[in-house]
Write a structure and sequence with these properties.
By secondary structure, this protein is α/β, with parallel strands linked by helices. The chain has 2 domains: 138 residues, no CATH class; 129 residues, Cytidine Deaminase, domain 2 (3-Layer(aba) Sandwich), CATH 3.40.140.10. The protein is built from 8 helices and 15 strands. The longest helix is centred in the last third of the chain and has 14 residues. It starts with 8 loop residues before the first strand and ends in an 8-residue tail after the last strand.
Length: 293
């Protein structure tokens, strides 16, 4: 057992993919609240933030600061969006590792890849350390990301604008941890009719996206050629890159995209929406996909 004798482990049919009970994503603390000159003690919920180490066999590959929960999906999504695997069958085993010491318990995911798929770790000195606010910080350069071969997404996908404007409300209604802490990003996958397929939360917006894409990989749903990704924060370059790798034709955010994200979306002909709030949004790329389904 991974987390002590009382922890129940659920086994899934995915090679040797071992899924543990959902880790704690919220911490409780005591705070002092100042309100119009009066101070009172109260309990407050915090979004949990802990390091997750991804290992290929026994060799460390990456450390990312994340909110515990859906760690196997996060690892799978990271491997896929970084180009280390191209299909689910390359992942032979994916499991929570107890770690070497108590401090690491529950913060290590071990991956076993099929022969011939394992990366050359000595050559890969990009050293994937991703801070929670910016997944691209650990790259040697932006050029190393853009050097990858990215394919334009489904040109025939169409999304009704009336469907699009309903998505933020559906996202907010499903953000359980955000509702308690106010401190998490979310990424949600919708179909062309606006039906929510999956939503994941994390203190790092790029991690939330990797969790969604990892879910799709493990569910054999890639490429996501007929779906829409909605993110709760801004649409940065790495989110657009990850979306294109997953085959997503439309990415929307409730805030602004970055200039590099807009440039990549236009180059690869992805539909990029920003400031999706109420009945208003801004189209930065791919306007041709918006219209009656």
């Amino acid at each position: 057992m991974l987390d002590g004798p009382r922890e129940r482990i659920q086994l899934a049919t995915f090679g040797r993919c071992r899924l543990s009970r959902k880790p704690r994503s919220v911490d409780l603390t005591q705070v002092s609240e100042w309100d119009d000159g009066k101070v009172r003690r109260k309990d407050d919920y915090l979004a949990a933030e802990e390091p997750l180490e991804i290992r290929i066999g026994k060799d460390p590959l990456s450390v990312t600061m994340r909110t515990p929960g859906h760690d196997l999906e996060l690892a799978a999504g990271f491997l896929f969006t970084e180009g280390l695997v191209q299909r689910r069958s390359q992942i032979v085993a994916l499991e929570n590792d107890p770690g070497d010491a108590g401090a690491n318990r529950g913060n290590v995911v071990r991956v076993e890849l099929e022969p011939g798929s394992a990366p050359d770790l000595e050559k890969m000195r990009r050293n994937f350390f991703a801070a929670s606010s910016c997944g691209i910080c650990g790259k040697a350069s932006i050029d190393s990301v853009r050097a990858r071969t990215l394919q334009p997404p489904n040109p025939d996908f169409r999304l009704d604008a009336e469907v699009l404007v309903r998505l933020p409300e559906a996202l907010r209604a499903s953000q359980a941890v955000f509702g308690r802490t106010g401190g998490l990003h979310a990424a949600a996958l919708f179909d062309a009719k606006g039906e929510l397929l999956v939503l994941r939360e994390d203190i790092g917006r790029h991690n939330a996206v990797d969790k969604v894409i990892g879910w799709a990989l493990l569910e054999n749903r890639l490429p996501l050629a007929n779906d829409v990704l909605l993110v709760s924060g801004r649409g940065g370059f790495e989110i657009i890159q990850k979306a294109i790798v997953a085959g997503l034709p439309v990415v929307a955010s409730v805030s602004a995209p970055s200039s590099l994200a807009v440039q990549l979306a236009r180059e690869l002909r992805l539909t990029l929406i920003g400031f999706l709030r109420g009945r208003r949004f801004v189209i930065y790329a791919g306007e041709e996909r918006l219209g009656p389904s």
